[in-house]
Amino acid sequence: MATEEETSLMEKLDSVVPAPLAQFDAFPKIPSTYKSRSESRGFMTVFVCLLAFLLMLNDIGEFIWGWPDYEFNVDKDTSSFMNINVDLVVNMPCRYISVDLRDAIGDRLFLSGSGLRRDGRTLSHAFCDSGHSAISEIRGLFDTLLRRTSRAEIAPTYSHPPHPSACRVYGTIEVKKVTANLHITTLGHGYASREHVNHNLMNLSHVITEFSFGPFFPEIAQPLDYSFELATDPFIAYQYFLHVVPTTYIAPRSDPLHTHQYSVTHYTRVMEHNQGTPGIFFKFDLDPMSLTIHQRTTTFTQLLIRCVGVIGGVFVCMSYAIRITSHAVKVVTGGEDEVIAVASSSGAKAGLRSKWGGGELRSRGKMIRQGSGWTMESNPGSPALGGGYGSYANTPLSQTFSPAASPYLSSPSFSSPSFSSPVIPSSNPGSPNPSASFSPPSSRPSSLYHPRTPGGSLSSIAFSNAAAMSSPSIPGTPAFSNFPPTPNPATGNGAGFPTGPPPRRVPSDGAGAKKDD
Amino acid sequence: MAKGFMAGLKGVDAFGKTTEDVKVKTRTGAFLTLVSAAIILSFTLMEFIDYRTVYTDTSLIVDRSRGEKLSMRMNITFPRVPCYLVSVDVMDISGETQRDISHSIRKNRLDSSGVQIRGSRLTGLKNEIEKNSEDKGPDFCGSCYGGKPPESGCCNTCEEVRTAYVQKGWSFSNPDSIEQCKSEGWKDKLEEQANEGCSVSGRVRVNKVVGNIHLSPGRSFQSSSRDIYELVPYLREDGARHDFSHTIHELAFESDDDYNYRKARVTAEMKKRLGVGNPLANLTMTTRKPQYMYQYFLKVVSTQFRTLDGQLYKTNQYSVTHFERDIAEGGQGETPQGVLAMHGMYGTPGVFFNFEISPILVVHTDTRQSFAHFITSTCAIVGGVLTVAQLFDGVVFATARALKKKT
Asked: Do the chains contact at A28 and B343, CB–CB below 8 Å?
């Protein structure tokens, strides 16, 4: 059967470790008879487990997704050339504009003929195209890293209108890595040229779909992407000042991505004829610092260490907090000790047992000190207690135990200890009624029990007081009425726990179960 | 136990102990104990290694220094330019120029296979010069042949006549007609040295502004505030082909801290550890065209290193891009991509280092985890592992007992 297999599993586990090594067991497991359990602590256990799980989520998140780590270095790349990817539409026919680049060395590159392609478009088409590309850029950057397959190219023009009024300038050009100035000027205003563009036809409105440096990644949105300017005047100069920083993105488990980022400031100037050169100017220079964005994650061992630390810390702290709180409560409510022979009973462990263990493990209630003896704290809500011990209520022996408790149980909130014989029926609603001791606990009306204390100890005090015979003091009681001395760990008393019949169980008529702390 | 205060303390004992006879010791518990001990040891060891590791933090601040100067240290070899042709000049944006630096720059002659010629300096001609002047007598005052004479008023050596010509703005094209040169055998020396190379090394001190250091052929002079290079001896093909192929062994910008030997050693070691330093080390450029210009654009970034003991070391790093151009092709050419390019500036053959200074200062700080951090992590590990193992053990124990009871 399954149980046989289980036991053989335990025996197998046991056989792994040789017997003498059992001495090294550092985890004191105490049989559950020595532990006290309560429902509120069980609830605390569940709460603590939830808290530990929530705290672990943070560490797990760091392990899976990581955090971006920024690093600056002086740029070590000594390559001499870099790419500029351009895709913009200017609202003038292509034959009227000239595209050039001048760099700090003094070279002038003629980009009108080769390098950048030019197609006729209209400006409204340009806005549509921009929209399409913008949607594809909503995907995140790290998506790009994981999905990129081949080099991307700027999409060629697909529709060519018959009478183009605008010019799309697009392509990738290779330039020297120095400060330079890429500009689009009109013929006749700027460079010396044979042609001259009529001032009515000059309209430098433009839409920039793409302007980036380095390898072309359409998914990365640069500052000048999807920007446009509408010109109000024929003689206007748009100047963009760009500062380029080489950037490397490193995502976990993928190759580094080398690219460039830039920051741009932008200035528009309207001028009179012959006062300056109209056009669109992109003036850029390079920064010596390069930025590396590294998405860092923790390693698996670090994750384990942290989770283990979190769980352990939370449980230990909670157990001490619970212990301190209950101790403080005991001190405040006055002097009823508990027999808790378990030093390491964290609420957690008790709670786990209560979750995993069988029902019989829950049956121990709290023992209440009565003089030198102990009585079982009664718990009418617990079926086990009620059923198990209700029968002892009729034991004639029980009467002799109660006097022992009287001198020691003067609770401050108990105003009038009424000493009456155990058999007096309950005629006084205010006083505790001892006659109920012989009736099943469930019949007690709950309203008679006042006041309530957290320990619920008053009820027993009351009943035992009420049931007290006129017994002088403890020393006078017969020896057999005393329980053997309690196994108090502090005193090192190794006597076993009393296994005799519990004293007369006086059922309390408290409203519902006594509240456990 | 004593009553009173100590008894009160007993109530606060958070580490209650269970008595031996109450404890249940199982073998699985022992097994788990040993496993936890092993885990704790390994984790503590990893934390300890982490504690001893030195990390380098990088941060950027604005460079607020004033009045600092840069020292550019270089070591460049020209295999096919003789030493008398190479001249080192500095120009910067403030207008300060240093021409033909010779006090801090050393030029060593190399023979055609690159081996240094023993005992040779450019002033190796001096011995002969002194001999000649002794022959002529102590009061000999040579004519400067129309050039601008030095302070002493006399041009006694060929070199002085040449300098006088350069100062006047004339080219020194015909050494045979000058007597000092003839007696020194200048022309023979020229031919002898025509096949040699030159190794230029030393330090140049510059201001911390945008500037330009160049190694060019001939002597440079200034005429009406324009720099003109005396190129005639270079271009005249006297049987040997000269070109500015070069190998840069070392090019670094130093600060005043690097003059201190001990500090320089620490700085060099930190640079090596971080992998920063000399982007131009051992860079070789070769060409066969005499009229070839090499341009290097350097951006200098000031750097500070802070070591674990709190010392501060100042130095510099730079980033560089380089370009080359064939001047012989004239005003127009083609880029590698095939785009037509027009050259706006006429170039001179040589090697030009254009540098500019960045406003950002990089601080590299060596840090290490503190001891308190290590202790905290160790406690966390030990506590965590033990508690989790205890929980697990308790579960196992309870399960086992529950299952046993069911049978």
From this structure: no
